[in-house]
Amino acid sequence: MPDTADTEALGERLAAGLGAGDLVVLSGPLGAGKTAFVRGLGRGLGVQGPVTSPTFVIAREHRPTPDGAGVPLVHVDAYRLGGAAELDDLDLDTDLAEAVVAVEWGEGVVERLAERHLLVRLDRRPDDVRVAVVTWENAAG
To answer: Is-contact 45 24, C-beta < 8 A?
Structure first.
C-alpha cells in the first residue's frame, strides 16, 4: 500500500463487506492514512459529502446517496476525547444500530461498543510507504 490512493482503495474494497452495526477501529501515528482509509470507506459505501478529518468536531455523519449501499457512515476522531464519559456522550452505540462507525485513534477506547470490530492498524515507514494490518477482533471481556 505505497501511497494515499492505495490506502483509500483499501478502504473502498473493505466497505463491500461492511454493513450497519459494524465498528471499524483505526490505529496509527499521524500521517499514517487513517482519514484516507475512511475516505475510501465512504466512497465504497456510497455516502454523501467529502470525508474529511473530524478532529475538531469529534464526529461526522455521512448519509448514503440514493445509489449508494444505503448505509450511513459515522466518522469519529477519538484523539481528543477525555475518556469513557465523553465517549458515552457521543451515543455511538445508538449509531452502530444503523451505520458503519469508523473511529480514528480508537484502539483501546471503543472496542466495548460492539461484540467484534474490524481493527485497521496503519503505519507510514520512513520511505513514505504505508503499511496496513487488518483483522477482525472480538471485544475483550
So the answer is: no
